[in-house]
Structure formats: C-alpha cells, structure tokens
Specification:
The protein has 90 residues and is an all-alpha fold. The chain is built from two helices and no strands. It folds into two domains: 42 residues, no CATH class; 44 residues. The protein is 86% helix and 0% strand.
Length: 90
C-alpha cells in the first residue's frame, strides 16, 4: 500500500466507524423511548400535510368571509337606521 491509499483506507474506515456510532445512538434512543412508553414518531406523508394545510386555509377563508358579510350587513342596517332618523327628524 502506498501512503495515499492507506490514508484513503483510514478515512473510509473512520467514516464507517462514525456511521456505526450514529446508528448505535439512534438505536439507544429508540430503546430508551420504548422503555418510557413513548411510541416512535410516525412519518407523515407530504400529501397529508398539504391536504391539512389546504383545509385550514379553506376554513380561515370561510371565517373571514363570514366576518366581512356580517360587517356589510351591519353597515346596511346602520344606513337604514340613519335614513329613518333623517326622515323622522328632517
């Protein structure tokens, strides 16, 4: 082995060891959570998240529409009351 090939081999070996340490850490965390009765996190599909966001937007838009409709109805009522007062006192 030349010096550069042995250096590459050591780098690859170090990388492999690091990956194994990370796997061990993940496994230990999952085991600890399991012992505490904490279920593993479930992955949520992107489609599900997008549909939930769309539904929330639809609900917000509907609520805003209700508020603006009420404001418009209130303004019409106020104009009607003002016109009555002007007719009665004018």
């Amino acid at each position: 082995m030349t010096m550069t090939s042995s250096r590459k081999y050591k780098q690859q070996l170090d990388l492999g060891v690091d990956v194994l340490h990370q796997d061990i850490a993940v496994a230990e965390t999952e085991i600890a959570q399991s012992h505490r009765g904490q279920p593993p996190m479930k992955r949520v599909k992107r489609v599900t998240i997008q549909l939930q966001e769309r539904l929330q937007k639809i609900c917000r838009d509907r609520d805003e529409t209700k508020v603006s409709r009420r404001s418009a109805e209130g303004a019409q009522r106020s104009r009607g009351e003002i016109n009555k007062l002007l007719k009665n006192h004018g």
